[in-house]
Amino acid sequence: MREFSESYLSRTREGMWADSRAALEPLALDSRDRILDVGCGTGELSRVLREETADDTTVVGCDADLELLEVARGDDPVPVVAGDALRLPFPDNSFDLVICQALLINLPDPAAALEEFARVSTDLVAAVEPDNAAVEIDSSVDAEDDLERRARQAYLDGVDTDVALGADARRAIEAAGLEVLATRRYDHVRTVEPPYSDGALTAARRKATGDGLADDRQTILSGAVTESEYDDLRSSWREMGRTVIEQMGTQEYRRAETVPFFVTVGRIA
């Protein structure tokens, strides 16, 4: 199981569900009594679920990372419990909806986690998972789309979990013995444009230094990429990053990243 920092979760989940929550309709949130958000991290999805449910609905977050749970307990707190997705600290039939967001793609055996979700649910189990192989980039820097695609594919080849699972999460849900009720697609679009946020400026600097790619070096080299190919990619990456910073200096830089998520809902058979 990969671990993620608060800053990574904030950057990748910022604005998630801000424009539409229609893909959550199959969850029938207005009729739920108790909901468990597994792998809740800093609580972003838990807060969305709380907003979409009745006042007397209980929404509980669960995560194995104690530092992330401390953030979830912060300024806009949600009830959270420390626990492993494969050994949830709840008795059978404790909730009527158990859900996760961007969790299964980081697990070696998603069906095993879904079986555990089903153990503590009386009705629905849902997975909100991305298809990271289908991410699209539209950038004012011509080289950025191609380099991001190359780096993403090299990373995908090196990871040992299915980070493109979202588009086919129904297979894992069916393997867990659940009946698939619905699948809805939601495109999470992250934009960078003037005035640039501190996070966008930091990301640009990390491109120019190659630090962002360096963080993934071990994973990339676990795939088919050679040391020489990685060095060439990082050199081009840094050059691209310098162009991004130049365009930011003249307020010309624009970037839109579209990450397709799939909400797949299963029912206890």
TrEMBL record:
Pfam (any one): Methyltransf_11
UniProt keyword Repeat, yes or no: no
Tagged with keyword Transferase: yes
GO BP: methylation
Residues annotated as domain Methyltransferase type: 36-120
Keywords assigned: Methyltransferase, Transferase
Family annotation (SUPFAM superfamilies): S-adenosyl-L-methionine-dependent methyltransferases (SSF53335)
Lineage start: Archaea, Methanobacteriati, Methanobacteriota, Stenosarchaea group, Halobacteria
GO terms assigned for molecular function: S-adenosylmethionine-dependent methyltransferase activity
Protein name: Methyltransferase domain-containing protein
Superkingdom per UniProt: Archaea
UniProt xrefs under Gene3D superfamilies: Vaccinia Virus protein VP39
